[in-house]
Amino acid sequence: MLQVAVFVCVGWLLSVCLHEFGHAIVAYWGGDTSVKDKGYLTLNPLKYTDFNLSLVMPLIFLLLGGIPLPGAAVYIDHRRLRSRWWKSAVSAAGPFASILVAVLLTISFRFGSSLPLVEYRWIWPALAFLIYLEVYVVILNLLPIPGLDGYGIIDPWLPPEIQERSRKFGQYGIFVLFVLLWFVEPFNRLLGEGAFSISQMLGIPSQMVGMGYRLFNEWAKVLLVVAIVIAIAVRQLTKKPHEKWYEQGNGRIRGRKYEEAIAAFDQAIRVKSDFPEAWYMRGYALLQLQRYEDAIAAYDKAVEIKPEYWEAWYDRGIALEIVQRREDAIYSYEKAAQIKPDFHLAWYKLGVQLNHFQRYEEAIAAYDKAIEIQPYDANIWTDRSAALGYLKRYDDAIAAGEKAIKINPKLFFAWYNKACAYAELGNVELAMENLQMAAKLDAEKFKENAKKDPSFDSIRHHQAFSKLIGE
């Protein structure tokens, strides 16, 4: 029946929108306010990063065989999220939204299927099939495959080297999933049976799901053609030329094709020269290509057009820091922190640069602001420990180092800074104990630093120290 096919497709598109909105709203709460500027909080499907992957492709898979492959998530800038917990929460938010949709649909089915709506009796098998699809996609999305939300939940907690490898593989994850679903029958059957079992636990009869699937399939192919035509027409009619180029550039960024991304952003800028987001993303792509001066010039244009563009000020600071224009970097980080005072990384980076100029009191004040916002970043505590050591506040330096180690016991400089403080206090035993831990974590870095560090001048004559540095 045509009504069933239309009902399921419209319901599915709305649920995908809610899924993507779930990612965006949690990202916004977690610190990435750029999702608001990109329009992700409007529930407008045309504002998503990739309309084809987020909406059209899931619909096509659904129409081809009732397999609702999840669409691409909205573009989240994970650097701006306050912690690993927020990164995991952003990934979990999509499946949670799908679970919520399934629950609401189930309530509607349970209370509505008994109503004597004879002329609308097709709606109940349609609703049953839609609930099954929602359950199926939750199971699917929670699989620990790079590119899916299930992997995104655990990714922040994995070692950095595994994270880097998985990001390279992530763009192919959806294709691996497609192959598994279409060509590995036991895998597909396992997911399908799991979705059926959960649907039955929710009170949805399997016969009703089957009926909904059969009625849906009667018009699926015709609706597929109509949906594609409508999607292309809407895409062409609603997007302005500079927006199309901008979105194409974002797509190339996700695929790590930075040269192609720059070309797309250049096209957007040619159409609309006062487009700050295009200048900013152009700067981001140039930064990834290590073309730092060009990146700085792009960020300069972005903040010239939009002075309150804190993301551009922050990334400008990163590029300036890399080329060792540190005073300019301080200014950029100060601007970012002034505009976005709850962005802890701006305060942290500001502290690092102030520390470089031996402005230790100011650096500690910046670190304290960062810690106030994000108390569980071990790097901030470690650098704060170093600044306190330079001020000869050794007890405070040790306390800060202990905070860092409690958060991340594998942080080399947290142990090393504590050893420096203990050595300055004349506590040889604890200095050596911490030095041994630092050496276990990174022997080469330890030797490179300890051999010339004046903090250890008072203990260099000790046999244990000489043995540890290999002298």
From TrEMBL:
Entry-linked NCBIfam families: TPR_END_plus (NF047558)
GO biological process: one example: proteolysis
Span of domain Peptidase M50: 10-109
GO MF entry, a single one: metallopeptidase activity
SUPFAM superfamilies membership: Protein prenylyltransferase (SSF48439)
UniProt-annotated location(s): Cell membrane
Keywords: Cell membrane, Hydrolase, Membrane, Metal-binding, Metalloprotease, Protease, TPR repeat, Transmembrane, Transmembrane helix, Zinc
Gene3D superfamilies according to UniProt: Tetratricopeptide repeat domain
Transmembrane domains' residue ranges: 51-76, 88-111, 123-148, 169-184, 219-238
Organism from which the protein derives: Aerosakkonema funiforme FACHB-1375
Residues in TPR repeats: 242-275, 276-309, 310-343, 344-377, 378-411
Family label: Belongs to the peptidase M50B family.
Cofactor(s) the protein requires to work: Zn(2+)
Membrane disposition: Multi-pass membrane protein
InterPro entries reported in the protein's UniProt record: Metallopeptidase_M50B (IPR052348), Peptidase_M50 (IPR008915), Rip2-like (IPR044537), TPR-like_helical_dom_sf (IPR011990), TPR_rpt (IPR019734)
Protein name: Tetratricopeptide repeat protein
Recorded GO CC terms: plasma membrane
